[in-house]
Amino acid sequence: MAEPNKWPIKLFADVGSAEPFVARLTIGLPDILDATQFPNREEIKESIRELAMDSVTPAFLSLRELRKLATDEKVPILTKQKNYEDMYKSLWAAYKDRMKITANQMGYDLGFLFQKDSLFDDGCAQFTKTRPEVSEELIIRMRRNREDWQLALRRFRNDYLEHKKIKREEVEEFYSLAHAERTFHCVWVAIEEILAILIATKLSGNFCFSDIPDTERNPSLPLRFRFGLAKRRTS
Q1: 61-69: long-range contacts (C-beta < 8 A, 24 or more apart)?
Q2: Distance (Å, rounded) from C-alpha 25 to C-alpha 23?
Q3: How many Cα atoms within 13 Å fall on the side-chain side of residue 106?
Q4: What does the alpha-carbon distance between residue 115 and residue 120 come to, in Å, rounded to a whole number?
Q5: What's this model's pTM, rounded to 2 decimal places?
Q6: Distance CA 99, CA 92 (A)
Q7: In a domain, 211, yes or no
Q8: Positive/negative CA dihedral, 35, 36, 39, 40
Q9: Does any domain span residue 1?
Q10: Residue 137 lies inside a defined structural domain of this protein
Q11: 77-92 and 57-69 are packed helices; what angle lies between their axes, rounded to 10 degrees?
Q12: Per-residue confidence in pLDDT tens, the chain, 235 aa
């Protein structure tokens, strides 16, 4: 086998850092990790990048294709349908499987997020009790995501795509471009926010990070977070 430096160079994906999800997941979060005390920082970075490249990027490619095809009546219905379904499957894999793996590498079990309501509520209470270092904002955002889109996406993926327990008419909204755009944005931003909150638990006590205002973000690399000095408590 040839040495790595002699391997042929091939284009993996034509999606660059101007796409917010690429900038923020593959560059922004790993940069924040460099300022933390996680002993396995490199492993976590790689996990985040794999999440973005193996699951979120394929979802984006399906969405990008849908943008081209959505109003073209000459395109077969099954072609559009496949892109919608591929996108949602990739997003669910990113959120339920890959994000959970990354959180585990940080030492946090988020399995309760994907349980039925009673077990989710119990899990929230237990997590808050045993993980006081994690901002309460994590549970707030998890609850909001479940109500807003997570349960509906799970139902579509599990009960329609996988097991055909429900009829197409019950999930028709998932086959609209507007719904696909919104779901894509909601899922990858939720991943970013949940992981960022967990990452913050291991920041040096002297540092914090905050949102960069939209007006100050570089269009070619629209990162979300920047570092700052943590405010010292006064007695």
Answers
A1: 61/13, 61/15, 62/86, 62/87, 62/90, 63/87, 63/180, 63/181, 63/184, 66/177, 66/180, 67/177
A2: 6
A3: 31
A4: 5
A5: 0.91
A6: 10
A7: yes
A8: negative
A9: no
A10: yes
A11: 160
A12: 555 454 444 444 667 899 999 999 999 999 999 989 999 999 999 999 999 999 999 999 999 999 999 888 899 999 999 999 999 999 999 999 999 999 999 999 999 999 999 999 999 999 999 999 999 999 999 999 999 999 999 999 999 999 999 999 999 999 999 999 999 999 999 999 999 999 999 997 777 888 999 999 999 999 999 887 766 554 4
Q: DSSP states of 70-139 as a string?
A: TT-TTS-HHHHHHHHHHHHHHHHIIIIIIHHHHHHHTT---GGGGS-HHHHHHHHHHHHHH-TTS-THHH
Structure tokens at 206: 């002297």
Which tokens hold the place of 179?
């719904």
d(CA 133, CA 167): 44
Tell me how many domains the chain contains. Answer: 1
CA 119 distance to own-chain centroid? 23
Give residue 53's domain range.
18-229
Dihedral (CA of 141, 146, 150, 154) sign = positive
Is there a domain that residue 9 lies in?
Answer: no
Query: Which token pair is 99?
Result: 């994000």
